[in-house]
Amino acid sequence: MDRLIIISNRLPFSLDRQGDKINIRQSSGGLVSAIKSYFESEGSQKSELTERLWFGVADFPQEDWDLVAASQDQNQDFNIVPLFVDNEVYDKYYNGFSNSVIWPLFHYFSSLARYETAYFEAYKRMNQIFAEKIAPLLQPGDKIWIHDYQLMLLPQLLRTRIPDITVGFFLHIPFPSYEIFRLLPSEWKKTLLEGVMGADLIGFHTYDYVQHFIQSVKMLLGVDNYFRTLLYQGRLVKVDLFPIGIDYKKFNQAAYDHDILESRNEIRRNFDEKKIVFSVDRLDYTKGMMHRLNGFEYFLENYPEWREKMVFILNIVPSRDTIPAYTERKKLIEEKISAVNGRFSTISWQPLIYRYNHLAFNELLALYQAADAALITPLRDGMNLVAKEYVASCATQHGVLILSELAGAASELSEALLVNPTDVTDVAGAIARAFTMPVYEQRNRLSQMQRRLQEYDVLKWVNDFLEQLTQVRIEQQKQEVRLLDDRSIVQMRRHYQRASNRCLLLDYDGTLVPFTRNPTEAHPGAALTDLLRRLSSDPKNNIVVISGRDASSLDRWLGALPLTLVAEHGASFKKKNDNWQQLVSVSDLWKEEIRRIMQIFVIRCAGSFVEEKANTIAWHYRNTAPDFGFSRSRELLNNLSSLVQNTTLQVVDGNKVVEVRLSGFDKGITALKIVNEMDPDFVLCIGDDTTDEDMFKALEGEAYTVKVSAGASAAQYSILSQQQVIPFLGILSTPNALTEKEYAGS
Ligand code: GDG
């Protein structure tokens, strides 16, 4: 039985004290709506969770909480653990770093970001305070789910304190493209990514955000990905998309609630059955209020036939009103509203009904139901729940959603009238179209969106995330590579000795020989040559050296031995005692463009060089200043990846090398082909690099797979250093009994 621990910056409510009386007020905002709905619906179902706890910062004094806690019904859906923190640090962390750096930047408002060191320091401090306060309260088996951009460092901070915890992280706002993210000072952006990578599962609303995040992690932390799985510090981390849902039933069934229906009818009567456009948002420059008003003004100008026949109810919920970017915006919006009303109102009609207040939930539902159209025009939005709630509320299949194509929700709500908020003609045209849209078309569009929202509601969203979190932990356990110990070696050797047709697939650089400054110097030493000679003289053995190297180097070093040699990951090969064969013979023209780019990087990065092989060009940066070489390699990867799109080339991020090669050849495919042809009764595969992971995966269940170096891998076993490979192969192929002492001393 597990506990679910939700951690978010704020709690789902605040406390209002009036004299001796304390009122509980629910906070508005996407995260709170979603998690609360989940707890409410989940509370009424059979659940495997023994307890649900919600940690967050209290925006009320301890003594008020003590009074409320004492009088609280203990039988509620979840328990609250408020954190009481220092106001000054909190202000710099929340209004400062969270909402004046991350929020504007991640929403592509880079000019509003204020890069102040004191903000970043407070952000680090507050994340530490969360970790210090929460870590001692955690228990083994807890599932921890951290929410949003205010707590990006917390996953790592908790993991450092309790390495074995299960942590999920979800970002409710967009993750921007790398070009925007990189605007952050170097230390900040690395710290943020390292913080998030402390989680086991990292969730985003859309596929774009997932891609952006993976790209930033690759560029800045040098982490390899396999689809949406990253290997970070020896741990497997999964990144995936979980488009947040809503409590569909709650919104849809509100249409049958007598009181809400009554309020809805009253609203319609008050406006004499005029057409109603409705919008509700927190006060925020990302929500595109000014653009909405410009579009609406253009509508009144250009569709005069609708004057006096419609109203636009615009509700803005106060938010972050101590931050200048917000207060200034409020002023501008209110001036614009007055100007539009001043210009178009008549004695008996006013086009804009504006409220700056929090709506009671039933009032919000009544407005959703009363509206003929919802006008939602964010310039960027992680998802946008209002759009989904409006669609769910149209239970009578009447209503039109006008939605910005820049909201995350646009990718799921494609039957909405999608508009670009910066285009006034687009917005105005959509309003006019909504007013004249035939009922059958409204029904058609709504029902398709409603089906989707019903299927993936908030309950599904949370369950999906939590199930995947459990799944990642299972995968991590599978990936925990066992260190090759005496017992495994003894077992492996018994099998080796019984076998009559053995296949040993051995990588070259980093496995059979150590890395050298210059790849041309990596010739085999006497110990290796002797071993390979001895192994290959046994008629039961097929020794395959499988490498990314070019054929001529392998031939020069190993050509005299009776081995099978595979060069360039399989593009050319030489069977035992046979001649070299090329599997591809295509024009080399593609190399010119790649060579040109790589040579620019050689000039820009001292110590790097280009190596050219028959089917591969590689840029090596092993001999450069480590950080510098690494950051240049990220740039090169970026350039090359976009260049080779839609071609038959592939870019490989190897160990201190970036390679471009013809696709269709990887060590996995090649190794499998060799094993299928030989049909051996003993297979051993040893390698150290990312490209060797392809072999480990392809040979799963068919071979003993051994990775040189620690960390997560698809291999079964690991050997800690290259120096241990030759002794290990020696012991494997020597018939004497092995003692622990012999192996350790070898
Ligand atoms: C963040 C991301 C993402 C609003 N006004 C009132 C009120 N609300 C409720 C709505 C809705 C929620 O607040 C607003 O959610 P949004 O998704 O539209 O926007 P953010 O607050 O910016 O949320 C966003 C979300 O997180 C979830 O991941 O979608 O992109 O920015 O549920 O109904 N509720 C009441 N009165 C109001 O006046 N009762």
Supply the key terms:
44% helix; single chain; Rossmann fold; 30 strands; binds GDP-alpha-D-glucose; 9-stranded mixed β-sheet; 746 residues; elongated; 4 domains; 26 helices
How many E-type strands? Answer: 30
Q: Give the fraction of residues assigned to helices.
A: 40-55%
CATH topology of the largest domain: Rossmann fold
CATH first level of the largest domain: which class? Alpha Beta
How do the strands line up in the largest sheet? 5-4-1-6-7-8-11-10-9
The CATH architecture of the largest domain would be: 3-Layer(aba) Sandwich
Integer average pLDDT: 90
C-alpha Rg (nearest Å): 31 Å
Low-confidence stretches: none
Strand percentage lies at 15-25%
Largest sheet: number of strands, sense, barrel closure = 9 strands, mixed
Summing up helix and strand content along with how strands pair, one would put the structural category as alpha/beta
Tally of helical runs: 26
**Ligand species:** GDP-alpha-D-glucose
Give the N-terminus to C-terminus distance in angstroms.
Answer: 47 Å
What general form does the structure show?
elongated
Number of domains: 4
Give me the CATH superfamily of the largest domain.
Answer: Glycogen Phosphorylase B
